[in-house]
Amino acid sequence: MSQLNLTDEERAMIAAMTAPHQGVGYRVASYASVLVPVTLIACYGILRSDIVAVSVAYGGLLIYMGWQMVSELRYVKLWNSVFRKIVEHESAFEKVSPGQPNKTSPG
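and the corresponding structure tokens:
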């Protein structure tokens, strides 16, 4: 990986995202811990025609989505940098410029 010239921050992010606790189960549980209660509150509000419960569920969903967006957008530049370095590395290795199909790709 040293050939990619990754920064310490990029290496740390890759290490964190590839840790064993970042698997599918972790992600599903993380999303479910927020979405299940919000869904239950929304269902209760719809069944009872309770506009307050539906509003609380909708507000909770908006807050969660906002939090997720801010969390992801914080790392966009860093991920773009990592992926750009990988593409440049692969392009130099295969002698193919970015955006050009390589010899092993179909078509």
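(Above: one complete record from the training split.) The mean pLDDT is 84.
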